[in-house]
Amino acid sequence: MSPILGLQNCINVKVLKIFVECDPSDAIFQGFRAGDGFYEGFCRDLLEGILQEVRGIEKVEFDAWSSVKRSGDMMRGLREVVDGHKKVIGWGPERGWAVSGGTDPGDRIWLDAVLVHGMGRARSFV
Prior knowledge:
Elements: E1 15-20, H1 38-53, E2 59-64, H2 73-84, E3 88-91, H3 97-100, H4 105-117
Parallel strand pairs: 1-2, 2-3
C-alpha cells in the first residue's frame, strides 16, 4: 500500500465491510478474465495491505451478490487473508449468509467445522 493513501491514520476503524460483486473464477467468465487467479490474487493483496496498515480493524464483514459463492475462489482467498490476521469474520445482510448460513453446498461443511471446532477467538461479533 502506498503511504500517500494515509491508511495508517485510520485509527478508529473497527469494522471493514467488503462487498463482492462477482467471482471471476466462475465459469461464466471463462475467456474474459486476465488469467486464472489474477483477480483473486489482486484482491487478496489489496486486503492484505489494508489489514497491515489499518491496525485497529477487529472484524471484517463480507457480503456479496447472489452469484457469489462463499466457497468460491474469491471468497475463500479473502477469508484466508482475514484468518491470517486473526480478525473476526462477519456476514452482511444482502447475500443472506448471516441469517441462513448460505445456500452453497460448501457452506454447510464450513458451518459444521465452525460448530465442531469453534471460531478460536476470544470475542464474537454478531
